[in-house]
Amino acid sequence: MNTRTHPTFRLPLLAGVLLATALLAGCERPPVDTVQRGARGTGMVQVYNPRTLEAQQVKHTPPAEQPAIPATPGGPTASDVYQNVKVLGGLGVGEFTRLMVAMTAWVAPEGGCNYCHADDGNLASDAKYTKVVARRMLQMTQDINANWKSHVADTGVTCYTCHRGEPVPAQVWFKTPVDKQASRMAGSKAEQNAPALQVGLTSLPTDSFTPFLVDAKEIRTAGTKALPHENLQTTKQTEYTYGLMVHMSESLGVNCTYCHNSRSFGDWSQSTPQRGTAWHGIRMSRDLNNKYLEPLTNNFPVYRLGPQGDVAKVNCATCHQGAYKPLNGAKMLQGHPELAAPLQAALDAATTAATTAAAPAAAPKQ
Ligand code: HEC
Ligand code: HEC
Ligand code: HEC
Ligand code: HEC
User: Fold this and answer.
1) Which of 66, 137, 288 most suits a substitution to test ligand 2, by most atoms within 8 Å of the C-beta?
2) Cα 152 to middle of ligand 4, angstroms
3) Atom in ligand 4 nearest the alpha carbon of residue 284
4) Which numbered ligand comes closest to the C-alpha of 264?
5) Residues 6+ apart with CB under 8 A from 29
6) Are 72 and 94 in contact (CB under 8 A)?
């Protein structure tokens, strides 16, 4: 038989060539990007999918900034003009108003000023719970930026980092109710065999947050002592640890090797600097939940609380939302220096309040 291609075979051949060309053209952009994070051969590699990153770009882009207000040195401050300002009293009136406008855009663009302010138009009133919560949120934001630089550096956070234009941040967590029947059947009190999203649909305990981001349980799997009776690391503790680690990886959109060398997860000398940042992030999240959110529980209406009656709390995803740095590292705080630290006036007021409060206790001794 003649080896020349018969005309009827040419069409599929052409189609095949075109397909191959198309596939090759697709290869111009690699399906995934890999970034070496340690010596080659140690498995310290980070894998990114450029298409996922692109699709998320909008979510990680900060909103347009409110125009700056020219400072008027010696001009009236908010506490000169308004009746009920406890946190922002030291701000110039122009900057105060600018922040109110920004807060509205960051937290309640649909509700507007009245999402926090009383409907009767009295801006000094604390009638709505949202205003009381927002005042505490202002202090929390200043506290994060001033005292958790070990984690947020100078990038810092604003209300938008968590809220993204919504009154309730998209990523919060509640304590999960334990379904006694299911746990009995699955033989586990930790809801283990009801795979949950927050642990990447694995069969790990569903609530890895309470032990580590409210309580300060040890995040350990490996014992540091050789003898079995000295090694207090339990299987359950290991499972909770892995649950948290899955959450951390997913919140940041990274692999385990973003922080660890997988040949020795516990060894700090083989870990990346990011693991150190994450260590502080765990402590910061725990601090925010204990110092700000849990004490606000009774301020929230019941419909905002979780099935166990607890308040919505913060984890890594609340700020990060899938990015290695929230908003891909955008420095929104620079445009709002009033959120960078507690204002001096607030500090002074707190000192006065503390001295006044301390006085009666000291009195009897004199
Ligand atoms: C997310 C909640 C929130 C939104 C939205 C909000 N505010 Fe406020 N507002 C507050 C808080 C909290 C205070 C008290 C600040 C303090 O104690 O330092 C306050 C105080 C004020 C005061 C001082 C009133 C007084 O006499 O004590 C004015 C004026 C004000 N806001 C105006 C506005 C305007 C105008 C808007 C809409 C552009 C607005 N606010 C939107 C939370 C909010
Ligand atoms: C670290 C993350 C974080 C930051 C930063 C943050 N918030 Fe919140 N905020 C939360 C969480 C979590 C809740 C609880 C959600 C809920 O309402 O159940 C909340 C609740 C609120 C609520 C109550 C909303 C409602 O409808 O129940 C208001 C108002 C609010 N924040 C205002 C602010 C303002 C204003 C700022 C900036 C000064 C701010 N937040 C910064 C995490 C944050
Ligand atoms: C963003 C950084 C980061 C990522 C990503 C991360 N970890 Fe961790 N991991 C840490 C930190 C920080 C600790 C120590 C926590 C502490 O001591 O408070 C830790 C602790 C551990 C431990 C306990 C080690 C010991 O001393 O016993 C194990 C095991 C572990 N991680 C496994 C993983 C696995 C598996 C993944 C991927 C699913 C992962 N980690 C992803 C930061 C990270
Ligand atoms: C209050 C918001 C907030 C929370 C909650 C938070 N982070 Fe962050 N995180 C940030 C900010 C802001 C940065 C950027 C700091 C910078 O620019 O260096 C950051 C940076 C990081 C980095 C460094 C990334 C890099 O490549 O340099 C790691 C790792 C990280 N966070 C892990 C975590 C983990 C793990 C948790 C939960 C245990 C967490 N974060 C919770 C705000 C937060």
Assistant:
1) 137
2) 6
3) 5
4) 3
5) 50
6) yes
Question: Nearest 5°: CA angle at 40, between 34 and 46?
Answer: 25
Decide if pLDDT at 57 tops 90. no
> Which ligand number lies closest to the CA of residue 174?
2
- Ligand 2 contact, 314 CB (< 6 A): yes
pLDDT of residue 5: 44
Percent of the chain with pLDDT over 90: 56
> Measured between alpha carbons, how far is 113 from 164 in angstroms, rounded to an integer?
17
More confident site: 40 or 45: 45
Pocket of ligand 1 (CB under 6 A): 82-88, 100-101, 103-104, 107-108, 113, 115-117, 123-124, 130-131, 134-135
Q: How confident is the model at residue 118 (pLDDT cuts 50, 70, 90)?
A: very high
> Could you tell me the end-to-end alpha-carbon distance of the chain, in angstroms, rounded to an integer?
119
Q: Which amino acid is at 38?
A: G
Contact 154, 112 (CB under 8 A): no
Q: Which tokens in the block code for residue 86?
A: 């406890």
For residue 269, pLDDT beyond 90:
yes
Is the minimum distance from the CB of 354 to ligand 4 under 6 angstroms?
no
Number of residues in the chain: 366
Q: What angle do CA 235, 238, 243 make, to 5 degrees?
A: 130
Closest residue by Cα to residue 289 from 216, 351, 205, 182: 216
- Mean of the per-residue pLDDT values for the chain? 84
